[in-house]
Structure formats: structure tokens, C-alpha cells
Design a protein that fits this description.
Elements: H1 10-23, H2 26-38, H3 45-57, H4 61-69, H5 76-88, H6 92-104, H7 111-122, H8 127-139, H9 146-158, H10 162-171, H11 178-191, H12 194-207, H13 212-224, H14 228-241, E1 249-254, E2 257-262, H15 271-287, H16 303-311, H17 314-325, E3 332-336, H18 342-355, E4 359-362, E5 367-371, E6 374-375
Parallel strand pairs: 3-4
Antiparallel strand pairs: 1-2, 1-3, 4-5, 5-6
Protein name: DYW domain-containing protein
GO molecular function: RNA binding; zinc ion binding
GO biological process, one term: RNA modification
């Protein structure tokens, strides 16, 4: 458009910013920001809100906050963007403080604002605060949506309070959907409650029989309990129904290009160097105290194969590629389409220390910022 001399307006820039946000293409997002400043469009409220969203989803919450703090006349959408960004990064107190400031400014929160706060509570283990949000929603005249209930079910379930989680489902003022039952099933898998898990799984199968999530959760639960016959039954059921597992993929932006990796991926031109560096890095983190959690490999194979499976997860390949191809001290940001496994989570804490890097991982649930041996989620996610 620019080469053809076509004038680029706000809508064009916003569309590209949304694409940058969805893929964490930070370098391109910054170029767009520079273009907006050059065209005098960066002060437009809708544009600035898109910038806040882009920086937050690219793992740069500080820059998102800098853009927000320069905005004038913020509306509920702008406030919600920064509340949601803080929530996704696990900054529950900051999210609550922003919401208080928002109301002091005379801006009434909407359903999405409340959802962001309930989400933050869910991923930080703050049950009382989540309940307070429900009460506050009623005070503001909002009716809880399925997403709000999902967060509370998740919070109760991960805390081992499965009976209370079931009571929430039973008390929902509408028919529980797939999201509610999947959340319950995930909690049952975590707590190894097979009976409740099987009930939740059947509900998921009825609602959406070709969605792979419920089958995989049940298979993982059976495998964790070494019920291999049941694992095989689930696999055959998936085959009969034509259910396909979604592959885990991770991408990282280096030198303005996105590089995508699958598990045990050997399609990248630098594959030999990546795997050699990964081997060295694995030895280093083991010497530093890392112990692979092979219980997470839900296949009936030997210990060495289990370790190799963990070491070749897509997010590890992406991070090693970033370490090889960026200057020392550069922050890395990886986007993963699935939930980050707990073994990679542990490994990345060691890697952040050994490499002296900040590593940001955006998985299907939230952001994890690893630095000096710790994570922003405080190991609760």
C-alpha cells in the first residue's frame, strides 16, 4: 500500500497490530508503532488501545503500560485492554488496582473487564477474590457468562475442591457447555479422580464428539495411573470417530522472521546446530539441579525414550534457536498453542539462570516470564 502511494489509515494499522498480537510479532509491531507516530495516529484512542493489546500479547507489559499511561480520555475498552494484559501476565494486584482506578475515573467496567479479573484470580489461586468479582458483577447489573463460571470451576478444581466445582456446574443458570465440562475434566485429571473424570468426559463426547481435548485428557489420566488397556480403548474410540490430535507448535520471532517448531522437529535449516546446543544445554541444567519429570510422558516406553521426548518439546527447540541466533542478554518470547508442560516450566527456570536471559512463554492459558530461576506465575497455573 505504501509503495503504491495508497494512504494508510487507522483501520489498516489496527488490522496489522491485531495480526502482530496474535503471533507475538513484536518487531513488526514496533515498526507499526513508529509508522503511527510518524502519521500522527498514535494518539487516537482506538489505535492506542490496539497498541496496548499488541504489546501485552507480545510479552511486553511494561511497554503496554507506557502506551496506556500516555492515553487521554480512556474508555472502557482501553481500560479493559490494560486490565486484561495485566491479568494474562498473572499480575492480580495490579489488575485489581487498575480496576479500582477505572471506577474512580467514572468508567464502569463491563463483562469483559470482570472476566479478565476472574481469570487472573483463577490463575493465581485467589478464590475469595473471584467470589468478590461475582458479587461485584451483580452490583453492576451484569449476569455471569459461561466464561466466568469456567474460571471458578477451574479455580476450585485445581485446589482439589471437586465437589464444590460440581456444585457450581449444577447451579449454572443455563445448560453447562463444553467449556465447563472440559474444565471439570481437566481438574479431575489433575486430582486423579477417575469416576468424576469419566462422567465429565461423557458429557464432552455428547456435546462435541470430534473435539480431541476430552479424549486426550482421559487418555492422559489413564496413562498416569498406568491403565494402559483403557488408554488403548480411548485411542480406538478416537479412531472410530475420526478424532485427530492437535499437534503442539511453538514459534519465536528472530530478526523480523517467525520460526515455527513442532515436537522433535527436524525441518529447520539449522536443525543440527539446534539439537547439538539443546544437548549441551540439557547437560548444563542437569548439572545445575534439573531432574526430568518423566511421569509426564504418558507412553509405555523406557526411561531414556521418555527423557528424549521431554527434551524435544517444541518450546525447547524454539528457545534454543533463539539463544543461538540473538545476542547475549536478549529477551526471548515464545508462543505455544498448547498449555506449557510442567517439566518444560521447570527446565526454563534453570535455562533463564544459565543463559542470563528473560524468557517469556505465551501458552494457551497465560504468560510465563522466566528470569533468574523463577517464573511470574509463581508455579501456579
Amino acid at each position: 500500500m505504501q509503495q503504491e502511494g495508497v494512504k494508510t489509515g487507522s483501520a489498516t494499522f489496527i488490522s496489522v497490530l491485531e495480526a502482530c498480537a496474535s503471533t507475538s510479532a513484536l518487531a513488526l509491531g514496533r515498526v507499526i508503532h513508529q509508522n503511527l507516530v510518524a502519521n500522527g495516529l498514535d494518539r487516537e484512542l482506538i489505535v492506542a488501545t490496539a497498541l496496548v493489546n499488541m504489546y501485552a500479547k507480545c510479552g511486553k507489559l511494561v511497554e503496554a503500560r507506557e502506551v496506556f499511561d500516555q492515553m487521554e480520555g480512556m474508555d472502557v475498552v482501553a481500560w479493559t485492554a490494560i486490565v486484561a494484559g495485566s491479568a494474562q501476565h498473572g499480575h492480580i494486584e495490579e489488575s485489581k488496582d487498575l480496576m479500582r482506578r477505572m471506577e474512580l475515573e467514572g468508567i464502569k467496567p463491563n463483562n469483559v473487564t470482570f472476566l479478565s479479573l476472574v481469570y487472573a484470580c483463577s490463575h493465581s489461586g485467589y478464590l475469595d477474590e473471584a467470589r468478590d468479582c461475582f458479587i461485584a458483577m451483580a452490583d453492576h447489573g451484569f449476569f455471569p457468562l459461561p466464561e466466568h463460571f469456567r474460571c471458578v470451576i477451574d479455580l476450585l478444581g485445581r485446589g482439589g475442591r471437586l465437589e464444590e466445582a460440581q456444585e457450581v456446574i449444577d447451579a449454572m443458570p443455563f445448560e453447562p457447555g463444553l467449556t465447563a465440562w472440559l474444565t471439570m475434566l481437566s481438574a479431575c485429571r489433575l486430582q486423579k479422580d477417575v469416576l468424576r473424570a469419566e462422567i465429565a468426559a461423557e458429557k464432552c463426547y455428547e456435546i462435541e464428539p470430534t473435539r480431541p481435548s476430552a479424549y486426550l485428557l482421559m487418555s492422559n489420566l489413564y496413562a498416569a495411573l498406568e491403565r494402559w488397556d483403557d488408554v488403548e480403548k480411548v485411542r480406538r474410540l478416537m479412531e472410530r470417530r475420526g478424532v485427530k490430535k492437535e499437534p503442539g507448535l511453538s514459534c519465536i520471532e528472530v530478526k523480523n522472521r517467525l520460526h515455527e517448531f513442532g515436537a522433535a522437529d527436524k525441518s529447520h535449516p539449522q536443525k543440527d546446530l539446534i539439537y547439538e546446543e539443546l544437548r549441551k544445554l540439557t547437560l548444563e541444567i542437569k548439572e545445575a539441579g534439573y531432574v526430568p519429570d518423566t511421569s509426564l510422558v504418558l507412553h509405555n516406553v523406557d526411561e531414556e525414550t521418555k527423557q528424549a521426548t521431554l527434551f524435544h518439546h517444541s518450546e525447547r527447540l524454539a528457545v534454543v534457536y533463539g539463544l543461538i541466533n540473538t545476542p547475549p542478554g536478549t529477551s526471548l518470547c515464545v508462543v505455544n498453542n498448547l498449555r506449557m508442560c510442567s517439566d518444560c516450566h521447570t527446565a526454563f527456570k534453570y535455562i533463564s539462570t544459565i543463559s542470563n536471559r528473560q524468557i517469556v512463554v505465551r501458552d494457551a492459558n497465560r504468560f510465563h516470564t522466566f528470569a533468574t530461576g523463577g517464573c511470574s506465575c509463581k508455579d501456579y497455573w
